[in-house]
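From: lab user (bench 3)
To: helpdesk
Subject: output format question, protein + iron/sulfur cluster

Hello, I'm new to running complex predictions and I'm not sure whether the block I got back is the full result or only part of it. Here's what I submitted:
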Amino acid sequence: MIASRRKFIKISALGLGGILASTSALNIFGKNSYLNEKVVKNISKNFKKTATYCEVCFWKCAAWAYTNEKNEIKKIIGNDDDTHCNGRLCPRGTGGVGMYHDEDRLKTPLIRTTINGEETYREASWDEALDLIASKFKTIKETHGAEAIALLKHGSPGSHLEHLFKAFGSDTIAEPAYAQCRGPRETGFGLTFGSWVGSPEPTDIRDTKCLVLIGSHIGENMHNSQVQEMSDAIDNGATIITVDPRFSTAASKSTHWLPIKPATDIALLLSWMHVLIEEELYNKKYVEKYAMGFDELKAHVKQFTPEWAYGITTIKPAEIRKAARAMANAAPATIIHPGRHVTWYGDDTQRSRAIAILNGLLGSWGNRGGFYFKEKIKVPTYPHPAYPEPKWGWHNLGEQYPFAEMGITSEIIKATIPSDDQKHPIKAWVVAGTNLINTLPEREKTIEAINAVDFMVVIDTMPMEITGYADVVLPECTYLERYDGIRSATNRTPSIAVRTPAVKPKYDSKPAWWISKEIGQRLGLEAYFNYNDFEEVIEWQLNKLGTSLDEMKKIGVKNFERTSGPLFLEEDQEYEFATPSGKIEFYSQQLANQGFDPIPVYTHHPEPSQGFYRLNYGRSPMHTFSRTINNPNLSPLKDENTLWVNPKVARILDLKKNQEVWLKNQDNILSTFSIKVRVTERVRWDSVYMYHGFGHNNEKLTRAFGKGISDTELISKVVVDPIMGGTGLRGNFVSILTENPHKNTEI
Amino acid sequence: MRYAMVIDTLKCVGCSDCVVACQTENDVPIGYCRDWITETVDGTYPNILLELKSERCNHCANAPCVRCCPTGASHIVEGGIVLVTAEECIGCGACIESCPYDARYQHPDGYVDKCTFCHHRLQKGQLPACVSVCPTKCMYFGDLDNPNSEVSLLLKNRKHKTLAPEAGTDPHVFYLI
Ligand code: SF4
Ligand code: SF4
Ligand code: SF4
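Helpdesk reply: Thanks, we reran it on our side. This is the complete output you should expect:
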């Protein structure tokens, strides 16, 4: 067992906190005011609009925060000119007000201390906390080098910290968004088209004639403009094909639902290629002009008939053919969607390659209704001295995975746990905006690593589980209370958006840019932070981009003309893809050179044994992972997850609707809490399903604590993608317990 | 003028954005709601039907809540909108009992509250908050008396239903199916 040097503390010193602003504004409006036109007019006149962009998820929709005369945030409304949201935020963005109002927020810096033999936190001043961090940074740098301090990050705070780290000399940086989420598709599409998919995905859904979703549940993931465009596609009568073992919301909107047996997607994809090629339905002209390796592909998929795939996927050959023909019929206005969370079975880069190749066969890449050529604005870098060259960094930690293109979180964990063959030991962590406990699989390893580090800082707005393991906790203010970097994202047309503070930081919380700068100054890195307020940085950058902060405060988002050429390929256009061959690579020499399959193959994955069910998980539309579960506006919509169980399974196990059950996985890991059963035909009998993000076990999250089960804690087995290091998470199996296994133990 | 709402169940994904937007627009206290989502599942795997839809007060032309209100607090205004005057409401709850849609709730401040079709926004020429936020654009709002309004045309051209028609309330929220 692990020596528990770093005992989890349930953020217990939060007593002093500020006073919660009343969320009921009826007292302002006066009773029944909505009937009184005058009052309403007067009140709404007093609303102030502040330009921001949303931070509740990575879509970063531009929005207006409305504050009343008492400086309370009342509502957040999408910016009409923004291509990410078109004036409509998703439920989480609309409920972003709750992030600000949440009375459970972290309120002051906290420092781990021991009182009467008990580990606890004490409140500290910013100066004390930052001094402590700087002095630890210095000591660790002297003995182990700056590289031994790792940054694990997500979202906007992460980029400010990244600057600090690079200035300090550490490139030991990773985020779960890569190896635990979308990494494989970026690598798979990169190897095929020479381009990452990126975010937002350059899918021309609004003009598509055929949208194919493979385990991608748009409508349950609320990737805003994409959800909007899928709705447009429905209006336009597009064919929607959903491949999912679960009858997802998207499946219910689809023309064809293919209820595939879990873990067999590559077989289906290969058989689709087979049909397209054997029936000569692929886009010959496009393939001839833009692709290479067609002959090898043709020979390769010859054997993968729909009949072969039927035996594996349980999808009838006629259905497979029908779907392939529908795709071909609509091509090139067909999208086989790359998906987003794609770390499933460890052969995910190959599955993404198969998806990319299918799109290539159909001629979708670079054609209307398929994928458009995205464009973004390059925001000039605010001047600072060159970063020092670290001796090692994330590359070295991930060198085992030749196609890793970003830091791999799990490799940082590995390098933190002391072992004999350790080349690059990590001694300290800064965790910013990511709740590693509910994000990373193999929780035991995460905790082992946490126990091994000499020093750990967590920066967050909420007392997420990870904060309980820190030596120093820093309360970040929410996105509604700060300036941040300019949003520039890839889209049909390039745009920029600004985030400006709608209100002052509540409690004693601070923006991440300020935290980074303050630590930087204490480390003698002033030259990298040559400004008093981040406002100055944005102002400088906006001026370079031909606008100003004043203008941006008024418009929030600015759209620019494209300069990189048309959205789609022109008839017979010469086009060089950024691959080694300059073509779409059906056959990947790059993969072959490293000893990987140059064309995807199907591999059989383990299946649940008797009494076990595959643990599948996904998104609830009103939440962003574990981050929003405690949000006072969103929590009432869904405050716990349920275990979806097929009625057949319920009959066998004699489970009733809403019955409380516990789960035990194949490695005998028990769920901490119980979950209520939802008996539904929407899942297969060989798997169970739950929404991700629930089952918080920090009591300080008063609305989220103990509600439902964390799927993550039951994911103790991962299959690592040998190509880029992604962690396949869908190979875990659970049995359902009707008796409380913790009855006689403390949890 | 006859206001009506039309909701396309073929597009609604049940995300609840309409619920949150109503809450922040109308200061609905946390834990209460004026609109909500229902999910209906039919059939057996793999032949399943799923219907998701956003529900609220139906602004009935023949409103039992208005009929049974002892003080006249519940009343119908221009455009057929059913409203409650909070100052006149004694919180007896008769209307809550009589509503076949369960659309009303007891506000913690002692009166009964419900969807107003965002009356205050209509007066400013804005759409109801839920309609204007919906990411799937599956909600439509307008005047049924105008035969060329979007809602009239949708009801003319598409198959639709209302909830609990057997209650004889003449509801004015329609669902495209
Ligand atoms: S999709 Fe929703 S949560 Fe994400 S940025 Fe947009 S509004 Fe915010
Ligand atoms: S916002 Fe629209 S899509 Fe979402 S639940 Fe409401 S009606 Fe349905
Ligand atoms: S019309 Fe207005 S009051 Fe009624 S449900 Fe929609 S947002 Fe709420």
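A quick orientation on your result: Chain B has one domain: 3-176. Let us know if anything else is unclear.
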